[in-house]
Task: inverse folding
């Protein structure tokens, strides 16, 4: 059993609770492919995952992991910014995972951009099926991280409460710079 220490394990907990075989989902920042692999396992052979990243290194790492694990067939890898989500992903997704910041093990100066992230979140929210969720792992311990977190929180706080539930999950026994999770659920 995976512990819930940190934003990503908590995100995975919610994704496991909500995503079912045959679902369509989005990994807005595939990075090294771990979230993509989880989503591919959850949707199974009848589902589909759209996985985005702007770095070819991330797309290659994700492709290699999925191929090694036998999960490449149900994933569409998109080498593009997540702000282009609506160009590729259809209506009715059950989940969207955003793991922001920079590519682990990569260039720490190449970070997600607040304006692009907010655009992508808006598109993902429009594409969500009823009861669908968006998970956003936020990192404030690097340059640009606090600004992106503020932009995401501002966007999420403005969502209509009759259409969306929004939560902010932080570990109280960790420093303020520890990663945390924003969870959005579409009500109807």
Result:
């Amino acid at each position: 059993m995976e512990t819930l220490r940190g934003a990503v394990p908590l995100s995975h907990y919610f994704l496991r609770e909500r995503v079912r075989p045959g679902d369509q989902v989005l990994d807005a920042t595939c990075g090294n492919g771990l979230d993509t692999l989880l989503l591919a396992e959850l949707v199974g052979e009848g589902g589909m995952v759209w996985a985005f990243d702007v770095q070819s290194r991330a797309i290659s790492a994700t492709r290699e992991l999925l191929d090694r694990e036998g999960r490449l067939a149900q994933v569409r890898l998109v080498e593009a910014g997540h702000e282009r989500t609506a160009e590729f992903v259809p209506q009715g997704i059950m989940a969207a995972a955003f793991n922001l910041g920079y590519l682990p093990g990569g260039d720490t100066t190449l970070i997600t951009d607040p304006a692009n992230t907010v655009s992508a979140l808006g598109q993902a929210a429009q594409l969500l099926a009823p009861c669908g969720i968006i998970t956003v792992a936020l990192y404030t311990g690097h340059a640009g991280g606090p600004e992106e977190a503020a932009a995401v929180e501002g966007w999420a706080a403005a969502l209509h409460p009759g259409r969306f539930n929004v939560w902010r999950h932080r570990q109280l026994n960790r420093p303020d710079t520890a990663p945390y999770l924003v969870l959005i659920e579409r009500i109807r």
